[in-house]
Amino acid sequence: MPPSLFRHARFELSVADPLALPEPRGAEIAFAGRSNAGKSSAINALAGQTRLAFVSRTPGRTQLINLFRLGNGAALVDLPGYGYAEVPEAVRRRWQGLLEHYLTKRQALAGLVLIMDARRPFTALDRQMVEWFARTGKPIHCLLTKADKLSRMEQAKTLAAARRLASADFAGLPITLQLFSSLKKTGLEEAEAVIASWLAQKEEWPPAKGEESREPKASMEIEAPAQGGIAGEDSSPSVF
User: What's the alpha-carbon Rg for the chain, to the nearest Å?
Assistant: First the structure.
C-alpha cells in the first residue's frame, strides 16, 4: 500500500513554459535528478502507481514540467532530467530557463527532492544542483535510489559516505539523505515523513498579500556533459 500522503496523486498537466503553470492551490514539492537515476520510478513508487510519471527509454520524452496533484491540494512537480546528452546551446538555454524560473520564482515550492543513483551519488551535476538550489534557503532531501542493487553492507557504507560528504561539503545547508528502492518499495515511509514535514510548514497558502519570494542571487549554471549518458530509465536529454 502506498504512503497515504501520495495515494490519490493524479496527473494534472504538463507545461513547457513556467508561465503556463496554474495559480498555486497548495504547496509544491519538486523532483529533480539525472536522467537515468530513477526519478519517474521513485514518483510512481511513492504514489503506488505504475504509470503516473512516464518512465521512458526514449530520449526526449520528459522535457516538460509535469504536475501531479495530491488529495490534500499539494502537488508533486516532476522536472526534466539532466545529464543525458549534449544538446544544442539554444535548446539547453531554453530548458535551463524553464527550470530556473520555476525553482526561483515559484512561491509555492516547499522543497526539492533530489534523485541520485546510490551507486553514483553526488556526481558533478548533482553537486552543482545542490549548491545552486541551496541559495533559495529551501530544504533538499536526497533519495539514493536503486539501493536494491547494493548489498546491505554496501548500502550502509554508501549512506554513511554520502552523509559524510554532505556534512563536509554542504555544511549548514538544509540537506538530508536516505536510501530508496522503487523495485523493493523500501524507503517510502521515510520519504513521506520528510515531505509531510515540509508541507506542514507551508500549511498557510497562498501567502499573505505582499509577501515576497526568496530568490537566489546567482543564476543557475549547470553545464551539459561533453558526452552522452547511459540510455535507460528516465533517459530524457539533458536540460543543462
Answer: 17
Query: Is residue 42 within 8 Å of residue 123, measured between CB atoms?
Result: no
Q: What is the pLDDT of residues 13-52, one digit of tens each?
A: 888 887 888 888 899 999 999 888 899 899 999 998 877 8
Query: What single-letter DSSP state applies at residue 192?
Result: H
CB burial of residue 36 (10 Å; 0-12, 13-18, 19+): buried
**Cell numbers given for 45:** 513508487
- 10-201 CATH fold: Rossmann fold (3.40.50)
Domain boundaries in the chain?
10-201
Burial class (CB in 10 A: 0-12, 13-18, 19+), 205: middle
Q: In this structure, what DSSP letter does residue 4 have? A: T
Pairing of strands 109-117, 28-33: parallel
Question: Model pTM greater than 0.70?
Answer: yes
d(CA 64, CA 81): 9
- In sequence order, what are the beta bridge partners of 31? 78, 113
Closest CA to 143 of 78, 74, 190: 190
